[in-house]
Every structure is written in C-alpha cells, then in structure tokens.
Amino acid sequence: MRVDLHLHTSRSDGSLEPRDLVRAARAGGLDVIAITDHDAVAGVLEAQDAAPPGLAVVAGIEVSCTHAGAEVHVLGYFVDPRNTKLLAYTSEAEESRRRRVRAMLERLEALGVGVSYDDVLAAAGGRALMLGRPHVARALVAAGHVSSYSEAFDRFLGDGRPACLPTDLISVAEAIELVHGAGGVAVWAHPDPTLFDLEIRRFVAWGLDGVECYRPNAMPTERMLLETAARDLRLLRSGGSDWHGAWNGPLGGFSVSAADVGPLLARGGFSTA
Ligand code: AMP
Ligand code: FE
Ligand code: FE
Ligand code: ZN
Questions:
Q1: Is the pLDDT of residue 271 over 90?
Q2: pLDDT at 272 over 90
Q3: pLDDT for 73
Q4: What are phi and psi of 12, to 5 degrees?
Q5: Residue 44 to residues 1, 35, 61, 251, Cα–Cα distance (Å)
Q6: How far is CA 179 from CA 41, 42, 77, 81, in A?
Q7: Distances in Å between the alpha carbon of 45 and those of 22, 95, 135?
Q8: Verdict on whether the full-model pTM lies above 0.85
C-alpha cells in the first residue's frame, strides 16, 4: 500500500485542482492520500467526491502557526471539513493572508522590485483562496525581477528575508485545539531540527499527537531522530511528499508505507491490513 499524507491543491499554493490531483495520484500508484492545503479545507470534499476507485482521500489541513517569530506548520488529519470553528478559522485566514500579501508587496516596492496585487492574483491563477509567498514569488518571476522561483525566496521571501512577514494567524496551542475540536489529530509538519529539540515536549504537553517523520530529500539521520523521538514520546508518525506541482516530480514518486503510518491511519478509521 502506497500512502502520501501531505499534498497541496490550487485551493492553497498547489498547481492542480482537487479533482485533477486525485486522478494524478491514482495514476501515480497511490492508494491513500491526504489533502493538506495551507489553512484551507475547501479542496477536501471536492477531492473526496472526485476520487477514482481504489483511492482513499483523508481530510486534512496544514495550519500555519507563528511560534516565537518562527513559522511552524501543524497538520490536522481526519478533520470534519464542515466544522464551524474550522471554517471560521479558514475564512479569517483568507482575509488575513490577503492583508499580509499587500504588506509584503509594500516591502518589495521599497526594495525596488514592485509587483501589483493583481499580478499576484494572476500568478495565483484566480483560484487560490489562500494567498501566500509562493504566489508572490511567481509574480516576481513573471515581472522579470528574479530569474527563478527559488531566487525569489533566496533574495526576498524566504524565512528571515527582507520581504517576508509572519502569517501571524494562530499559535501552536490554538492550532492543536482547533484540529482536535474538528475531530482531527494534530501532527507537526517538517519540524526544524533545532526547534524540534527545544519545543517538542511543550507541544506534546499542548496535545500534539504526532510528527511528520517521512518526506523526500530528508537526511536519514534526521528521520531516525524523529522516529526515535516519536517512539519515546508515544507520538504517531506521518509522512508525505509536500507536493505542490510537477516541479516536485510525479505524484507517487515518493510514498510512505502502511507499516510507517498505519497507527496514524487507524486513528481515522482507515484499515491498512
Ligand atoms: P506562506 O504560507 O505564505 O508563508 O508560504 C509558505 C510556502 O512557501 C511553503 O509551503 C512552500 O510552498 C513555500 N516556501 C517557503 N519557503 C520556501 C523556499 N525557501 N523555497 C521555495 N518555497 C518555499
Ligand atoms: Fe506551500
Ligand atoms: Fe508546510
Ligand atoms: Zn505543506
């Protein structure tokens, strides 16, 4: 069984519509996927409705948290995509992300690489509800201010770079509560190793259920440290490609096994036998 529990659609900063993503996932040989858009659940029901035979779609979200000035992403799995508080959060996030993008555009203007808000919307293809740094990066490339997407992050938009602003949406404790309130389990996505050592016990005390141990291009030592911590702290393990588009390779090119994420899937009532 091949599983990928971290995928983005065009409802946030991914390139594929939910209905196209499920088809591509099945074509890539995946059996179970999770839709985990940034601060959005709008793609979940659509993906579930369009899922081809043989593909199970887990309802997910990737909540953008700001923790001591750093961005921490908390994945919620098996959330109810109709949960009132969750939907209130996602609409607030939509609004707040628009304001953040406008503020980032002011910074870029001052840095001599101005693009307009309409340029960003155009770069988002008019479909993204959750505007973010990737859409701004694409607008910078389209305007010719940078020659590549990665240059946009390296020079302007990456963490700590001059046009980067925190999402400032929610704290880690609140995100865990939000996910639990919507019936889900909360998992720390792609933890930064230093922050992980410093904060994992605190996050567990706040109710964190799991940690993302498996992702493409991670150092084997990093994976082993996370697996060991998960065992010691009795945390669920998750994993996925964090796929955003074709530039991440084909869907199914990376997958995790039922052995690795079976206990997590069991929490959502998924049998991996
Ligand atoms: P935001 O939620 O607006 O802060 O954007 C975060 C997203 O930006 C991540 O999920 C990635 O898709 C992308 N991203 C962040 N840092 C980088 C980077 N250094 N290079 C490429 N993409 C990045
Ligand atoms: Fe992203
Ligand atoms: Fe993330
Ligand atoms: Zn992600």
A1: no
A2: no
A3: 98
A4: -125, -110
A5: 21, 6, 9, 17
A6: 12, 15, 8, 11
A7: 12, 22, 24
A8: yes
- Helices 172-181 and 84-110 cross at an angle (nearest 10°) of 150
Count of CB atoms within 10 A of residue 198's CB?
11
Please name the residue that has the structure tokens 């992702």.
215
Q: What is the mean pLDDT of residues 121-125?
A: 91
Residue 255, pLDDT above cutoff 80: yes
Residue nearest to atom 2 of ligand 1 (CA): 132
- Ligand found nearest the CA of 130: 1
d(CA 138, CA 118): 12
Q: Is 132 in the pocket of ligand 1 (CB under 6 A)?
A: yes
pLDDT at position 124 over 80: yes
Confirm or reject: Cβ of 133 under 6 Å from ligand 1: yes
Strand partners, 163: none
Q: N- to C-terminal Cα distance for the chain?
A: 9
42: left (phi over 0), alpha (psi -120 to 50) or beta: alpha
Q: Which helix (H) or strand (E) holds 92?
A: helix 84-110
Total Cβ atoms within 10 A of residue 48 = 17
Q: Which amino acid is at 184?
A: G
CB 190 less than 6 A from any atom of ligand 1: no
Residues in a beta bridge with 187: 75, 210
